[in-house]
Design brief:
Helix content: 40-55%
CATH class of the largest domain: Alpha Beta
Strand content: 5-15%
Number of strands: 15
Distance between the termini: 43 Å
Largest sheet: 6 strands, parallel
CATH topology of the largest domain: TIM Barrel
CATH architecture of the largest domain: Alpha-Beta Barrel
Number of domains: 4
CATH superfamily of the largest domain: Metal-dependent hydrolases
Number of helices: 29
């Protein structure tokens, strides 16, 4: 939101802290506003909203009615661009950046890196050798993720671009490809394949280049258009994150959330004749490793496979490209390609050369779960801790999604930064949950709340609260939040602590197992194979032990690479949005993509079971 950006820029400029805070508070207030902002503004009720003063209300009205923002836009040119770029460094906020700029004259990430390497930062107030090293670690992490976007960002751009190209005159069909189509947790450039007759290529190219929101054109030829998209591409889209405090802290706070949203992404649109569309789509969907296996299988059958077709070697000789395409075996859709090669069609999510070719050969690919199969989720927060919606409001939102249940898991008492619940508050919440459940049962409503808690796993593997206090809960989501301790320990110590935690009879679900934040921090060192193996043993003994796919697109933890192992070990998966708002419940969709990529089926997912079945399991 622009309000948040203005607050960040004012902070970088050294404005009055009260003025900065007023913009930050106004941004949060409007983010939680359930009424239509235009209606509230047009009716002159904006100043009735708590936290919105006359000055900010006037600016909002100006922005909505005239498309301008007073003199505030001058802030964007008055702050050195390098300072804004530094906001992308995980863990670095505007106050610290301002300090670096004022005391050391640093105006770019490169200058910051040099200063940190030379030991110049540690001499500043509230800085030390460890803080200096954290800056270097953050720069390295930023470099590693540079040019990559989270899955949700990639899909937002990619699906919008696909939809706009698909409706262009001269385009017969268009499809998103690449790592976005394979649902990788982070993606690079966007790839779109469009079926276009040769005589329409020029006009389609012109339509693409004149799309609103194209920030730059990298190239435009007879078969490919390369562009850079900016956030102006989403003038009609509205995004709400509902992130929890831990994620915001890891990413550098609200400032990073807002600034990171206002970025760019590269896109390549490949314009191909309709008869080679399926081959080009398969090729640019990848992965590279999957394509290598497919090409080798083709060669073994006397065929050549590439983005133009599947050709008998003895027919095409030295011909290449579109000349060879005339000899290709026909393929109206991707599944035809796999059929030609004696394979079951492989869903894009599985194309990572992780056994999918072998499974497709014998027709044993999994029947992947669908997001629509989810009947609820166990890990969600309310205003009792750090959520933005009450228990009743979250339940209402879950019912609107057609769910049969909602699991509440507010933070435990040790996490005071997130307003963790005291034992007495836990008891009060249990009574509220019980009353709501009785009311729905009396009315014949097929919906129930499960009363849980996101209970901190302590560094020694113990759980927050006493054993007796946890007994009132339907389920316990055990999560690690004291990351500094876990991050500096070796793998063996962390693994032993996690196993000790899951062996506690009250722990039901292992939440965000590594604590990673995509683009923000790596997870702590742990042998997840050992942890999951032990969970499988406990399940075999009759204890319910579940591992979470945290569906927040900032986490997507459990990593998809461990899903099949959990399945093999008999460990159920729970796809949880870790929602801190009503809107956040919908993040389960992203978790479902990871479950699919991890070869999971409906029977592997705990929250695909009915609410009544889960009652029997948990109550």
């Amino acid at each position: 939101m622009v309000l948040e950006q203005v607050g960040v820029l004012l902070e970088l400029k050294g404005a009055n802290p009260f003025r900065v805070r007023s913009y930050q508070n106004a941004s949060r207030t409007l983010g939680a506003l359930e009424e239509d902002l235009w209606v509230v503004t047009s009716e002159g009720r904006l100043t009735d909203v708590k936290g919105i003063g006359k000055g900010i209300a006037g600016l909002i009205a100006e922005a909505l009615t005239e498309g301008t923002w007073g003199e505030m836009w001058a802030l964007y040119t008055s702050v050195p661009p390098g300072l804004i770029q530094m906001l992308a460094i995980p863990g670095l906020g505007p106050k610290r950046i301002k300090q670096f700029h004022e005391e050391l004259g640093i105006e770019s990430i490169e200058q910051l890196k040099v200063s940190a390497e030379n030991g110049e930062l540690r001499g500043l107030s509230r800085m030390g050798e460890k803080s200096e090293q954290k800056v270097l670690d953050g720069i390295e992490l930023l470099k590693r993720f540079s040019g990559r976007r989270r899955l949700d960002v990639g899909l937002l751009y990619g699906e919008a671009l696909e939809a706009r190209i698909a409706t262009m005159e001269g385009v017969e069909r268009a499809q998103l490809a690449g790592s976005t189509r394979r649902r990788k947790e982070t993606i690079g450039d966007l790839d779109i394949v469009a079926a276009v007759l040769p005589e329409d290529v020029e006009s389609v190219t012109d339509q693409i280049l004149t799309l609103p929101g194209v920030a730059d054109v990298k190239g435009a030829g007879s078969s490919k258009v390369s562009i850079i998209l900016g956030t102006e591409f989403f003038s009609e889209e509205v995004m709400e994150s509902g992130l929890d405090g831990g994620v915001l802290e890891a990413l550098g706070g609200d400032a990073y959330e807002e600034m990171a949203a206002h970025t760019t992404i590269d896109a390549q649109i490949r314009l191909v004749p309709p008869h080679v569309f399926a081959y080009t789509l398969a090729y640019f969907t990848g992965s590279k490793e999957h394509n290598v296996r497919m090409r080798q299988r083709s060669l073994d059958q006397g065929l050549r496979l590439n983005e133009f077709g599947l050709f008998p070697l003895d027919a095409v000789g030295e011909l290449k490209g579109m000349e060879a395409a005339e000899f290709s075996l026909p393929a109206e859709k991707e599944s035809d390609i796999y059929t030609h090669l004696g394979l079951q069609w492989v869903p894009p999510e599985l194309r990572e050369d992780s056994g999918e070719i072998e499974a497709a050969e014998i027709g044993s690919l999994p029947d992947l779960m669908e997001p629509s199969m989810l009947k609820g989720a166990f890990h969600n927060h309310t205003t009792a801790s750090d959520g933005t919606a009450t228990l009743g409001q979250m339940a209402e939102a879950a019912q609107e999604l057609g769910w049969e249940f909602l699991g509440i898991a507010d933070h435990s008492q040790i996490l005071q930064i997130a307003s963790g619940l005291s034992p007495d508050e836990l008891v009060s919440q249990a009574a509220e949950v019980r009353a709501l459940n009785e009311n729905w049962a009396d009315k014949g409503v097929d919906f129930r709340l499960f009363h849980g808690n996101e209970c901190d796993i302590l560094p020694d593997g113990g759980l927050d609260y006493t054993d007796e206090e946890r007994k009132i809960l339907d389920h316990v989501v055990g999560s690690v939040h004291q990351l500094p301790t876990w991050m500096k320990r070796d793998e063996d110590v962390n693994t032993e602590a996690l196993i000790r935690a899951i062996e506690n009879p009250s722990l039901t679900i292992l939440g965000h197992p590594t604590g990673r934040i995509l683009g923000g921090r790596d997870g702590f060192a742990v042998d997840l194979h050992a942890v999951i193996r032990r969970m499988g043993e406990l399940n075999a003994e009759g204890e319910l032990k579940v591992v979470e796919i945290n569906a927040s697109p900032y986490r997507l933890d459990l990593d998809w690479r461990y899903c099949r192992f959990a399945k093999e070990q008999g460990v159920p998966i729970s796809i949880n949005p870790d929602a801190h708002s009503r809107q956040g419940l919908k993040d389960v969709w992203f978790g479902a993509q990871i479950a699919r990529k991890g070869w999971l089926e409906e029977t592997d997912i705990l929250n695909c079971r009915s609410g009544s079945d889960l009652e029997q399991l948990l109550w």
